[in-house]
Amino acid sequence: MLKHLYLFPDHPTMFEQNLSREGLSQEALMERDRLAALGEFTAMIVHEARNPLTTIELGLKHAKKILKSDTDLQRIALALSESQRLNQLLNELLDYAKPKPLNLSMTNVDAFLQTMLMQIQDLPEAVDRSIHYVNEAPAVEVMADINKLKQVFLNLFRNALEAIAAQESVNCLVKHSMPDGCVCISIRNAGKPIPSELLPHLGIPFYSTKPNGTGLGLAISKQIIITHGGSLKILSLAKETVVRIYLPIVDQCNIFYEHCNYPD
Question: Which of 26-35, 74-83, 113-122 has the lowest mean pLDDT?
Answer without folding.
Answer: 26-35
